[in-house]
């Protein structure tokens, strides 16, 4: 085809060069055809070879592009995206009825997160907790997460029990929430054992999926569960074969509405755990926790959670509700919280916690981008007594 295409212009050119009406002789015609064919053939061969070279170059470029696309994905992440460090701290001037006015140094929390590559992340929260004789260092969380998909993330390590909205979002750092302290129902293990085993060591699956304009989320996992020692955390192993299981499911709207439910079950078995001189040893019992939560963070800030704790046949309940109305940099807020405890619960009987109801009224003023001043007054009903408390807190974060 290519020689034919190359020959057509030459044939046309030879025809055009003949004088009109002249009849070429046989000798002149043969000589002309031979020289023209020879010249046109050489030119055509050169043009064909040039086109072939261009085709080969294009084919090679396509092969290189296909090899790049099928090769390993680029895993390098820019340095400014690899590491993030955040911190929170606060100092509070407060007075409880019948007690001296004093300053309280809140825990200082540092959070470190690093992208190991595009699908793996390491994060950890470390808390420096002020005590009477110094400062205690505590690893709050340590998580290694592999993101297979937005609908499936696998996390191993130490986590906060995610069946609680508060515990799963901003448990530590007073700057991150409205009141001066978390609700009592979310007390940690060192407060009489805590009502929930807030710190767990195990494996967790989480994911996010779009459902129309809403987003569906889940978190399910298994872990060592509650330590058989009151105030202990089962992070260096487990004394029993049974493992705790838990899950939380919630949906969120684009407008800031969240509705969720969660549950937890564990067979708390001391097994062969030896007695401890500092920590009381719990008897064997089953622990079941259920929770519901409703959160709205639109033109107002409303958060409420309610819990049922069952220790064998003993039923304990607790919860909180907080309402804030942002007006520029100022947010007036009010809240209420409660814990109603059953003394027949082995945890409550040994831990020594008491039922409590509290209401409070406060105001938060954001002095700058990462610093806030809070004023809060409490009314507390505990053990048949009613008292009050006042707080002035300066909280910051970075």
Q: Per DSSP, what share of the residues sits in E-state strands of 2 or more residues?
A: over 45%
Mean of pLDDT: 86
- Widest sheet, order of strands: 1-3-4-5-6-7-8-9-10-11-12-13-14-15-16-17
Give the proportion of residues in helices: 10-25%
How far apart lie the N and C ends? Answer: 74 Å
Tally of individual helices: 5
Given as residue ranges, the uncertain stretches (5+ residues, pLDDT < 50) are 1-5, 7-31
- What is the molecular shape? elongated
Number of strands: 17
- Radius of gyration from the alpha-carbon trace, in angstroms: 37 Å
- Helix and strand content put the structural class at alpha+beta
Question: What summary fits the major beta sheet?
Answer: 16 strands, antiparallel, barrel
What is the ordering of alpha helices and beta strands? HHHEEEEEEHEEEEEEEEHEEE
């Amino acid at each position: 085809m290519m020689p034919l295409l190359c020959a057509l212009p030459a044939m046309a050119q030879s025809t055009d060069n003949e004088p009109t009406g002249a009849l070429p002789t046989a000798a002149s015609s043969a000589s002309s055809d031979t020289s023209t064919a020879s010249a046109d053939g050489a030119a055509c061969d050169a043009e064909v070879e040039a086109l072939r070279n261009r085709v080969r170059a294009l084919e090679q470029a396509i092969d290189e592009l296909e090899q790049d696309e099928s090769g390993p994905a680029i895993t390098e992440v820019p340095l400014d995206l690899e590491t993030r460090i955040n911190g929170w701290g606060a100092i509070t001037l407060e007075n409880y009825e019948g007690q001296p006015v004093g300053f309280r140094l809140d825990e200082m929390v540092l959070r470190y997160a690093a992208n190991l590559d595009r699908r793996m992340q390491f994060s950890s929260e470390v808390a420096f907790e002020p005590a009477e004789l110094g400062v205690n260092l505590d690893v709050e969380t340590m998580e290694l997460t592999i993101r297979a998909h937005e609908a499936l993330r696998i996390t191993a390590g130490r986590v906060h029990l995610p069946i609680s909205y508060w515990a799963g979002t901003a448990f530590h750092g007073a700057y991150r929430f409205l009141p001066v302290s978390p609700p009592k129902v979310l007390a940690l293990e060192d407060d009489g054992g805590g009502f929930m085993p807030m710190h767990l060591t195990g494996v967790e699956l989480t994911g996010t999926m779009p459902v129309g304009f809403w987003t569906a989320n889940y978190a399910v996992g298994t872990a060592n569960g509650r330590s058989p020692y009151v105030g202990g955390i089962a992070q260096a192993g487990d004394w029993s074969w049974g493992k705790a299981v838990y899950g939380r499911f919630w949906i969120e709207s684009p407008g800031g509405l969240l509705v969720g439910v969660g549950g937890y079950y564990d067979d708390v078995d001391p097994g062969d755990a030896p007695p401890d001189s500092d920590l009381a040893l719990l008897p064997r019992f089953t622990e079941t926790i259920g929770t519901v939560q409703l959160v709205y963070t639109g033109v107002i800030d409303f958060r409420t959670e309610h819990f049922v704790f069952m220790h064998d046949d003993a039923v304990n309940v607790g919860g909180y509700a907080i309402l804030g109305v942002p007006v520029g940099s100022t947010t007036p807020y009010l809240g209420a919280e409660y814990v109603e405890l059953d003394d027949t619960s082995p945890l409550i009987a040994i831990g020594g916690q008491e039922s409590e109801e509290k209401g409070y009224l406060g105001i938060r003023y954001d002095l700058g981008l990462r610093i806030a001043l809070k004023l809060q007054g409490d009314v507390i009903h505990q053990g048949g007594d009613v008292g009050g408390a006042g707080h002035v807190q300066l909280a910051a974060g970075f």
